Amino acid sequence: MRLLKTSELTSHPGGWIVFDFGNVIIEIDPPRSIEAFQTLGAPADLHFDASYFHEFETGALSAAGFRDTLRGQLRWAAADSSIDRAWNELLLEVPPRTLAKLHQLKTRGYKLALLSNTNPIHIDEVRRRLGLHGYAAFERCFERVFYSFDMGLRKPDPAIYAAVERELGITSPNEVLFVDDNAANIASAAAYGWRTLHFV
Prior knowledge:
CATH class of the largest domain: Alpha Beta
CATH architecture of the largest domain: 3-Layer(aba) Sandwich
Number of domains: 2
Order of helices and strands: HEHHHHHEHEHHEHE
CATH topology of the largest domain: Rossmann fold
Oligomer: single chain
Number of helices: 10
Radius of gyration: 17 Å
Strand content: 5-15%
Strand order of the largest sheet: 3-2-1-4-5
Largest sheet: 5 strands, parallel
Shape: globular
Number of strands: 5
């Protein structure tokens, strides 16, 4: 994963910078979780575009419901802890230099927010890895943190951008620079009117 370049962000003429989480701030490697699930007996064609993964990210499916649905895909019985461990395999690290750049942007007066398609199992694991004080310091980088499972919406649905604007009091879409690694999310945000930076 490449690191954030402050120069790419400070060229924004002002307003808000809204960051994605996975592969922008935290490194992720989804095939690691696919492989881990396959060791628990998941089929070779398991993929994260299945509807229940999306339902989990919008809060329509609870953590318990997600585990039970996924357990139904496995050839062998798996404890909740084993499913969580496999699901969290895709999470790597939050590079300290990335956190330093976020703090730097905030001290320069930029208004930062986080907008992530995610789920409570992953966020609980991020909290555990960063620790109580580390996670609190991470959240302090942002004016607001928006997680899809709390909002009942997920990118690239344009309704999620409208919801963020309402919460932040944004009156004009071009006040926002949106940083995401997913091309579909970038396209929908650009069509909505946000400035975008495709982070690849």
